[in-house]
Amino acid sequence: xxxxxxxxxxxxxxxxxxxxxxxxxxxxxxxxxxxxxxxxxxxxxxxxxxxxxxxxxxxxxxxxxxxxxxxxxxxxxxxxxxxxxxxxxxxxxxxxxxxxxxxxxxxxxxxxxxxxxxxxxxxxxxxxxxxxxxxxxxxxxxxxxxxxxxxxxxxxxxxxxxxxxxxxxxxxxxxxxxxxxxxxxxxxxxxxxxxxxxxxxxxxxxxxxxxxxxxxxxxxxxxxxxxxxxxxxxxxxx
Length: 238
Ligand SMILES: NC(=O)c1ccc[n+]([C@@H]2O[C@H](COP(=O)([O-])OP(=O)(O)OC[C@H]3O[C@@H](n4cnc5c(N)ncnc54)[C@H](OP(=O)(O)O)[C@@H]3O)[C@@H](O)[C@H]2O)c1
Fold this sequence. Notes:
The chain is α/β, with parallel strands linked by helices. The chain contains 8 helices and 7 strands.
């Protein structure tokens, strides 16, 4: 069999059970990679090169434990996709503080902790790619999305600083800001709200899996060693 884009690579995908994370995990597996998936629930698919770990990313100790397990099983970690996220958005005047904290812990603190643990492993191999899944919300700043949009803007900024800190170790850090794509997360929003957000995009359509995978492949590529601290917005958002 011809080697795939990810042959020889160990790739950690957070939130690999569903939606965008599952698309990315299955693509990497099809392209010859080994995938370690972190999610709260049990695995929703099986593959000989897929290892699923149940991790609640809002628990820092659980992240550390999962990395211990990963280190025991795999000689190296090459690529991380910080994909897991939650959308608990509400108008600021009615949003409970628990929802605020959960979004910050899942969408910002967890990617920081995962990136840091991953960078420690990547540093040993003098090669790494950290890819954050951001959102158009960080640029569009929609009404009712204050904390989610702020988390995604923070993810981007955090990635840019980590890119500088990790450049000496040949580790790149980039962000892919995704537009609307049909997943469980999107299904939580009123249809009319989604339709009008999509209609307002410079390219007024939903994202496809391939739109996302194309950019993940680009950031993950051996040839992208001079690409870091970048955010790529899909659909013409900027
Ligand atoms: N869908 C869109 O239109 C859209 C647009 C812009 C950006 N995004 C971004 O794309 C990423 C993926 O979104 P999606 O639409 O695929 O979401 P989704 O369908 O709701 O899936 C979210 C995934 O994240 C995992 N997750 C959430 N909280 C977790 C926690 N505390 N610990 C471990 N895993 C956790 C879930 O694990 P379980 O399965 O175990 O619950 C699930 O696998 C997110 O970062 C989101 O912000 C999505």
